[in-house]
Amino acid sequence: MLVKGLLPLLALVKIAVSLPAAPVPPSEGLRLVKFSEDDEGTWVTEDQKFDLFISKKINFVDVTDTWQLEEFGATTGSSLEARQISFPSGPTHQSQANPLIAVAGKSNPQSWTNTFTSYNNRYYRSTTGVTSATWLYNTIKNIGAANSAITVTQYSHSASGFSQQSVIAKIPGTSSATVVIGAHLDSVGTTTSGRAPGADDNNSGTVTILEAFRVLANAKFAPTNTLEFHWYAGEEGGLLGSRAIFNSYASAGRNIKAVLVQDMTGYSPNNVIAVYTDYVSTALTNFIKTIVPVYTSLPVITDVCGYGCSDHASANSAGYPASFVTEDTFDDSSPYIHSASDTVSTLDFDHILEHIKLTIGFAVEASYF
Ligand code: BES
Ligand code: ZN
């Protein structure tokens, strides 16, 4: 009788072990944040999250709604497959990329920057965080209209409790295997309602990938791999937008061959292109290092950024090969970020144009991965 009763009980225990339950907040509205990979997580209020972490510059990731992401990354078939892909030893499509690079310019990035930084802030929980992201969506949609094959959609984060939406623009390839080029669209200041132009962090990355997208859309570039351009909401809130998107891609088993994230491209006292080497694919990062001197006029340097630094970490957690390109060493990057001083006047559009050239070169090369 005792043994008979034990068997179904053991089966139940087994189910409970193989299906981990969603974390339950100790009280309504708390967020689960992690300060390192091994951290179990701490429940905090939205106000604590802002005060303790954003204004005190402690790196963190908000895993409340995407607690399965790292698990997907370790187990999903498509990401394991993607992880094993090797990358070419150097660029091989210059003759196709160079004419596209030649039509990239600074005037559109400058004019988009003037509008995008004129919103009071682009904080993911503020009204101008929503209206600025909607303006960006409409702008991308108009640019994408140059090629009827292109789709531009908003990605809602209402399930995570905020209204700012990410944007996904897709240039379909002959293969559903996909290469992602991303940048975060939100900004943050010293208070949740204060001025945060975010000209460098990360209007610069936003307009960098938008100019590359404009050039490819106008040329009706037809890739082999599908190309997706992502503008992520809520990065400053702990990588929220990118974690949600890569969580959905990993859970759907999508084959993502490579991800290039750019965060801060407009301030470079050493006049370099920086490739950061932590929370990325070393193989993909090595490939990027080979294309920088071919597609730009700047030398490449490397540095590290730390846990939860930007959206490449979300792709990496999902098990996808990720890379991260930015303006300079961590110490020499813009000192004005996360404040009212991150203004257009601090930006070097010649430097942004070098990032645009790299982005177009990468898009063409990666379309054949
Ligand atoms: N753009 C920064 C990260 C960054 C800083 C890149 C310096 C290159 C040079 C990003 O938006 C940011 O602020 N990240 C936070 C972590 C985030 C989870 C709040 C950080 O690194 O402090
Ligand atoms: Zn940033």
Automatic annotation (TrEMBL):
Top-level class of the enzyme under EC nomenclature: hydrolase
MF annotations from Gene Ontology: aminopeptidase activity; metal ion binding; metalloexopeptidase activity
Keyword terms of this UniProt record: Aminopeptidase, Disulfide bond, Hydrolase, Metal-binding, Protease, Signal, Zinc
Span of domain Peptidase M28: 167-358
Domain of life: Eukaryota
GO biological processes: proteolysis
N-terminal signal peptide: 1-18
InterPro entries found in the cross-reference section: M28_fam (IPR045175), Peptidase_M28 (IPR007484)
EC code(s) of this entry: 3.4.-.-
Cofactor: Zn(2+)
Name of a matching Pfam family: Peptidase_M28
Quaternary structure and interacting proteins, as annotated: Monomer.
Family listed: Belongs to the peptidase M28 family. M28E subfamily.
Protein name per its UniProtKB record: Peptide hydrolase
Species this chain originates from: Morchella conica CCBAS932
